[in-house]
Specification:
The chain has one domain (about 10-205): HUPs (Rossmann fold, 3-Layer(aba) Sandwich). The protein is about 40% helix and about 15% strand. It has helices at about 20-35, 50, 60-70, 95-105, 120-125, 135-140, 155-165, 185-190, 200-205; strands at about 10-15, 40-45, 80, 115-120, 140-145, 170-175.
Length: about 220
């Protein structure tokens, strides 16, 4: 799956509206598990799947601001990328990964010759075949899957084997089990769910009047 000594890049994309403790727990546990040399956090610019459902997304600047506030206390090799938020069009994961790799090659980065781990929840494992150019994506990354809540690991392992056999997919199932948290509930009442928001993020939310209800 990976070659010893090669640099590791962990890619963690999402809406992060807002970032919550579930994200923090995933990052810290995955870091201990695979020891990436860098973790690239990629907030989505135009999350087409959510936009198609009519969901309103907080501005990219505010979501990045919350990320900066929530991640600054972590002693991890994190960088926040604007590779998607700088676009005016929806971004597909395969395009983002391809652009990230191309940039590494162009800049002569040592990461260009390394392994790229695509962090995701277990739900993605069962939806990946609906994604744009998913076969190419499965060739380009090591899909790093975190079971959540009451997920049946045996079912996850069965799906992993099917994808591996059919597409030659490289899939790592994390031993960490994440919590199931609702960003929607947090947005509806940040004060009530303050314990689910990383230090500094709640202050950012209140200072910038995010998620305030309009009567």
């Amino acid at each position: 799956m990976e070659i010893a000594g090669r640099p590791k890049t962990a890619i963690f994309g999402g809406t992060f509206d807002p970032i919550h403790v579930g994200h923090i727990e995933l990052l810290t546990n995955i870091y201990e598990e695979i020891r990436p040399d860098r973790i690239v956090i990629i907030p989505s610019g135009h999350p087409y799947m959510k936009e198609e459902k009519g969901m309103l997304i907080t501005s990219s600047e505010d979501r990045i601001g919350m990320l900066e506030a929530g991640l600054k206390s972590l002693n991890l090799p994190i960088e926040i990328s604007r590779i998607e938020t700088d676009k005016d069009t929806p971004s597909y994961s395969i395009d983002t990964v391809t652009e990230l790799k191309a940039k590494d090659i162009e800049t002569g980065s040592r990461y260009a010759d390394g392994d790229y781990y695509f962090l995701c929840g277990s739900d993605i494992l069962f939806e990946i075949e609906k994604w744009h150019e998913y076969e190419k994506l499965l060739r380009e990354v090591i899909l790093t899957v975190t079971p959540r809540g009451e997920d049946d690991v045996n079912v996850i392992l069965e799906k992993k084997q099917k994808l591996k056999k059919k597409y030659g997919a490289k899939i790592l199932i994390s031993s960490f089990r994440g919590r199931v948290l609702s960003s929607t509930l947090i947005r509806e009442n940040p004060g009530e769910y303050r314990d689910l928001i990383p230090e500094g993020v709640y202050e950012y939310i209140t200072e910038h009047h995010l998620y305030e209800r309009k009567e």
